[in-house]
Structure formats: structure tokens, C-alpha cells
Amino acid sequence: MTKKMEFCMLRAFQQYLVDQFIKLETQRLDFYSLNQDLFRVDALAGILDVLRHGERDASNIGKQSFLPASFVGGPRDMRKRYMDAIVLVQHFGKPDIFLTMTCNPSWPEIEEHLFVTDEVQNRHDLVSRVFRAKVEEMKTDILKRNIFGRVAAFMYTIEFQKRGLPHAHFLIILNNEYKLLTPVAYDKIVCAELPDSDTNDYLYTLVTKHMMHGPYVEIKQYQFARWVSPPEATWRLFGFSISEMSSAVYHLQLHLEGQQFISFKTTQTINAIVFPDTNIVFAPVFKENF
């Protein structure tokens, strides 16, 4: 096999990963698109109004719901994640630490599993697995080994640069007794200067190699399209989570009387929509306390 053929095969593998993810994503989108007539949403008061006027066909009421919150990366999913994060901040206080973890293609766990002819940029399957393992180890350091102190709540998200490697952004909220309240407390975990090359040459080499960047050319125009890179395609194909938070947030829809939104299928009868068998969650609690 010639070098040119080998290069083409490796690049073809990247294209294959992207194509497979796009097929999977398109299949999900097609499902929602082809079933829009089946799923609708409306306020309870609106459904009761049409019921009083004699309407019995559910396909004639409500409006179509497009991408649901279960579609990862959709607007409702992103808004849900944002609101969950805001709830944690409201309950536990503002985050104390913003931590970014970037994948390092020179990690031994990556290099030792490369074949002689392999290059890191062509092995996104390996990179994704190693980075996920590193993220899980970082979570263990933060949540179980308490390297910053005891954690009250945390959240993180995985992002992908257009042509770069995956990276994770953590927001960490510490318990009150471990809050960073003084410059001395911050200096224990944050360093904003280069390490001394004479006393700590190893750390100096790491910082100058991985954390210092030269000037870049700014892109002035963007194509109005979804950009999917091989690293993101591989991560999503493996089914790895793109975000996580703790503690858990329970979603409760607060509304005026009769204004709660109800999702239903056009095949249901309006009576079944308005008078379901299940009870409204927390209704007795609100009746007793409000």
C-alpha cells in the first residue's frame, strides 16, 4: 500500500465517522418531521374551550410541536439545560471555580495505542474514549477526592472546536466551609504566571507547550450551517454524554389555573386529553400551601 493510498484511507475514515453521525441525526430529525401531525400541544383552557363548543377531533386543536427537549442540541434541550443550571445556582449560590479541561493528543494512553502508521488526527475513536476516561477521572478527583474541597453542586459540558479536539468546561460550587473568599485561598489553586524553569522545569515545559498560544487569524464570515467535525461525530456515535450536573433538578411547570400546557396525540379523544387517569404532580401540595 502506498503512502498516498494510506493517507486517503485515513481521511476516508474521518469522513465515514461524520457521514454515519449525520445519517443518525437525520434519521432522528426525519422522525420528528414525519410525525408532526401526530404530536400537538395546547393550554388546558384552550382545550376546554373547544370542548364546550362541541369539538371532539384532537387533530383540529392545538399547534404542532417541533423539536422536543429530548432532541440533544435542539433549542428546547439547550433551554432546559440552561434553566437547570440556573436552578442550581439559585439554590447553592454562584459557582466558585470555572475549570477547562482540554484533550492532549500526546497523552500516553493515546500514543501507546497508535499503530506505527497511525496519526492522532485520524484516530478520533481512540481520542474520544481516552478523553472520556480522563473526564471521568477528573470528576472522581473533584467529587470524591475533594481536591478543591467538598462540592455542593457541579455541572459540565463537552464542546468541540471546528478542527480541534474535545474539551470540557466545569462549573463547581463548593460547600460554604470551602468557599474561596480571599486572594490567599485562590492562590492555592490558581496560578497566573509561568512556573520557574529552574526549580520546576517539568511544569514549565508543560505550560509553555500546551497553554500558550500565538496570534490567530479571525474568521469574519460564517457559513449558515451546522458544522460537524470528526471528533464530535465520534463522541456522539459512542453515545457519550455532552453534559452533566449534580444535584438533580425536578421539572415542575408553574402556571395560572387552566394555563398548563398539555402534549397530546391527534389519535386521542379530547375527553382523554382533558381528563387523564393520572393525577397532577404536586397539586395537593400547592392546594395546602398556596
Automatic annotation (TrEMBL):
InterPro entries reported for this sequence: Helitron_helicase-like
Domain Helitron helicase-like: 6-172
Transmembrane segment boundaries: none
Name listed for the protein in its UniProt record: Helitron helicase-like domain-containing protein
Organism of origin: Nicotiana tabacum
